[in-house]
Each structure stands twice: as structure tokens, then as C-alpha cells.
Amino acid sequence: MIELKDVRKSFDGVEVLKGISTQFEPGRVNLVIGSSGHGKSVMMKCMVGLLNPTSGNVFYDGRDFTNLEYSALREVRKEIGMLFQGTALFDSLTVEENVEFTLKMFTKMTAAERRDRVNYCLEQVDMVGINDKFPSEISGGMQKRVGIARAIALNIKYLFCDEPNSGLDPVTSRLIDELLKRITEQYGITTIINTHDMKTVFDIGDDVVFIYQGNMEWSGKVHDIAHSDNEVLTRFIQASKFK
């Protein structure tokens, strides 16, 4: 479980996050929704350590991530996987080398052990047999799958995805959604997805946090959205249908 307690973040005196307190459960797809510029990406960056909160705390299964010593912080980071909006694959590395990257960085596996783990992860995302290809030689959807394979290479407990369907056609978007849902349930991962795609929310989401003007405007189960009397959330959902 990941828990945020009164997380605030300011830039040059402007408060972007205004005291977020919430939690994200394991084995569930947790969606963070909201319009651009309202703080959801800043919140994710604070959660994974790319930004330091101005105040407040982020806990990973009771461990205060915002105040850990370096060695303990490194251990938590080994449990975190990230799928970036642009996949962030290394163009000069093959698919196998991309997936292997974190294994080299964080483990003492032999080359043979790393190769076995890479092949296993590629099998999990239905990308068998493309080890020697470069990112430029595969489609955008395939790159996303490789990005997921790299994210789960370390037997992670927590998976963060930033707009995983960005730039993908509807069919490929649904395949990525289904893959993320399956991996979350199969491995009991705490998955957190930033998205504008309300189809993703309703298709695979379990829990939702709605960020508006730096505040947690609404949170609850996906099936409760339709019955919400929150006018701001309703306007956001209605506007999203026409994007």
C-alpha cells in the first residue's frame, strides 16, 4: 500500500499540491484523473522521488519514503517500476538490453540469469522473439509493452504509469489497458495510472482519485463515479467524452 499524508508542493511560492492525503491499495488499478496543469503529474513525481514534497509524507507499506536513509531508499526504489508517457526506451540499446538495464543496475544476477529474466518478462507482455530489435524497429504499441516488461523486471511491488495510452490507436490502447490490469492482479502490484482516458478508467479501473486545482476533489470506487454529486467531477467527465 502507498499512503500520502498532507503532501504539498510549491514552485517559486506557488502551491501546486495543496495537502493531498489518500492511499492506494495493492492488487488494484488506481486511476489518478484530472485536467492538465492541476497537479496529478507533480503528485506522481513526488511519490516516486523525482520531486521532493515541500511538506508532507509518502509511505510505502509503512516506510516513510520522504525521510529514508540512502540504503533504505535504494531498497524501496528497487520495488518501483515506471512506464513513462514516451516509453523512455534507450534508442541505442536493443529490446533485450533495455529490459536488462535495471537488472544490471540493481541485481547481482549472472548474464544467463538476466537473459532468462528478460525472456520471462517479454513473454508476460506477449513480445517473445524481439530481443535483438531496436526501439525504432518496432511499433509504438510494442514499445509500450517493452516498457512494461522493463518496469516489471525487478519483481516490483508498485507500478506507476504516466498516460500509458498516449499516442496509441484505440485498439492498441485497449490491449495496453488489459495488459496492465492482468499484471496488476496476477502479481498483486499497487498500480497507479495518470490518465485523461475515461474509457481506461471505466474499463480497468478499481479506485479513482480526481485532482482539481491541486486538491483531491473526489476519491472513490469507479462504479461510484456515475452516482457522484460532485459537480466539478461531473463536468470533467462530460468534457472528456468529447475529446
Q: In short, what is this structure?
A:
The chain has 243 residues and is of the alpha/beta class. The chain contains 8 helices and 10 strands.
Task: Characterize the structure shown.
By secondary structure, this protein is α/β, with parallel strands linked by helices. The protein folds into two domains: 2-79 and 156-240, P-loop containing nucleotide triphosphate hydrolases (Rossmann fold, 3-Layer(aba) Sandwich), CATH 3.40.50.300; 91-155, no CATH class. It is 37% helix and 26% strand. The protein has eight helices and ten strands. It has helices spanning 40-48, 70-77, 95-106, 111-124, 140-151, 170-187, 198-204, 231-240, and strands at residues 2-11, 14-24, 28-33, 55-60, 63-64, 80-83, 158-162, 190-195, 207-212, 215-221. Strands 6-7-8-3-9-10 form a six-stranded mixed β-sheet, sandwiched between helices. A four-stranded antiparallel β-sheet has the order 2-1-4-5, with helices on one face. α3 runs parallel beside α5. The longest helix has 18 residues, at 170-187. It is globular. The model has no long low-confidence stretch (mean pLDDT 92).
